TrEMBL record:
Cell membrane keyword on record: no
Gene Ontology MF terms: hydrolase activity
UniProt KW Hydrolase keyword: yes
Family classification: Belongs to the type-B carboxylesterase/lipase family.
Domain Carboxylesterase type B: 3-362
Broad enzyme group: hydrolase
Upper lineage: Bacteria, Bacillati, Bacillota, Bacilli, Lactobacillales
Organism: Companilactobacillus halodurans
PROSITE patterns cross-referenced by the UniProt entry: CARBOXYLESTERASE_B_1
EC number annotated for this UniProt entry: 3.1.1.-
Protein name: Carboxylic ester hydrolase
Amino acid sequence: MKKIIKTTTGTYHGTVDHDHIDFLGIPFGYGRRFKRAEEFSLAKFGPNEVNKLHYAVHHGVQPMQDEALDQSNKLRFGENCLNLDICTPDIEGKYPIVIELYGGGFLRGGNHSKQMSWLDHESVVHVVPNYRLGLFGWSKVEGGDTNVGLSDQLMAIQWVIDNAKSFGGDIKNLTLVGLSAGAKSVSALMSSNSNLLDWVKKIIVFSGGVQTIRDLQTAKKVTENICRDNNIKSTQDLFNLTDDGLQLVQEHTLGTHISTNWFGPVIDDDLISSDWQDKLIQRVKRTHFKTIISAGTNELGAYRKMNINHLENEVMVDLFGENAGILKQSLIKEPYSKNEFVKMLGMAMYTLPGRRLAELLTQRSDAEVYCNLARVYEGQHGGVIRYLNTPETEINIDYRKNRRNFLNLLRDFIATGKPYVEDIKYEWPLYDNDRLVLELDSDDLKSVSIIGHRYPDDLPWQSYKL
C-alpha cells in the first residue's frame, strides 16, 4: 500500500492504521493575527524544501484555546495552526470525500481529537482541517479582518479540491459534515458568497444551522466587552499580546459564562452578505446540493443540574443576549418546570434553527432535505455522534442492529445522496409539506410526522444579539 503523496504544499509520508492511511498535520495555510488565511508555500523555506519528503505522522499545531494554558499538555498550540489530517482507504482510489468541521462553540476543538471518528472506518476520504477559534478567528478588531475562521475553512476546502487526486478522493463527490459549531460553520459556508462551495454535493449538520450568523455590531460589542473587562483601551491593542496573553484575556471574561454563542460568522457584506438567505437558496438551485439536518429531543438536558434562577437570569442571556426575552415569550408558557425550561433552551439553541433551515430550503426551492429527531443518549447534545462513535461491542446487543441501520443510511447518503437500507427496505423520508423526519431511538428507527410542531414565523434568525 503506497503511503507517499505529493501535494501543492509538499510531499508527505503517512502511516497505515486499520487498513487506512493517515496523514497528519499537513499545512494548507498561514495564520496571521486577526488576518485571513494566506496560502502555505514551501518555497518560502528554500528551494530544497519543495521536493523534500516530510513525515506526516504527528499531529500539527492545534488552535489556541483554554487547553493551551495547561503547561502539562503535550500538544502544541498556536495561532499558526492551519493544518489538516487525512484518513484515506487508498491513495490510488477514487472515494467520496468528507470534510469534517469540528464543534466546540467556536472556542475549542481541533483535529487532534476527531468528533466523527466513525468516518475513519468507512470507504471515504475523511479530512479534518483546523481553523482558528475565539478571538483569534471570530472577533471584530480594529485593523483586523472579519470572518478569519471562515477564511481558514475556505482555504482548507480549496486545498482538498486542488489535491484530491493525490490522496484517492473523488472531488465530484464532496460532503461537508459538522457537529454544533461545525454544523453552524457548514451552514454559514453554504450561505456565503464564495463560489468554492459550489463543489459541495451534500452537507450533514448535527445540532446546528445558520443561527450564529450575526450582525457586525454584535461581533464588535463582544470584542469591546472583552477589552473593557480586561482594562484594555482599544481592540487594536489586542494585536500586541502574545498568543497566551490573548487567550488569558479571553478566558478572564468568559469565566463561568456559557459563551457558546459569543463567536461565529459575521455579516460583513464580503464573505457573508445581509441577504445570506437568498445566497443559500441561489446555491441550492444552482448546484442541487442535498442536506441532512439532525437535532436531539433534549439538547441541553445536562443543564437540569443548574439552579432555575441561574438558568433564567444568566444562562439564557449568555445564550441569546437581547433575544432572550423574545425567545422565552414565544417558546414557553408560564407556569413551567425547570425541566420544561431546559427543554425550551435546547429547542431554541438547536432544534428550532434546524427546522427553520429545513423549511427555508424546502419552501423556497426543490431542495432534497432529510431531517432526523434523535432520542439516543436522552436526546442530548452530541448524542448522535456518541452513538455513531461507540464501538459495536460496547453497545447493548439489542441496539446494535439499529445503529448499523442508521450507519447504512448515512453511508448511502455520502456515497449516492439517497439514504436507503436494503436489508429493512427503509428509505429516509424527504422533509416536505408532510414534515416527515426520521426518529432515531437506540432500539427503533421510524418515520414520524412533526406537522404539529410549528413555531412563530417572526422569530429572529440570529440567535445571539447585542
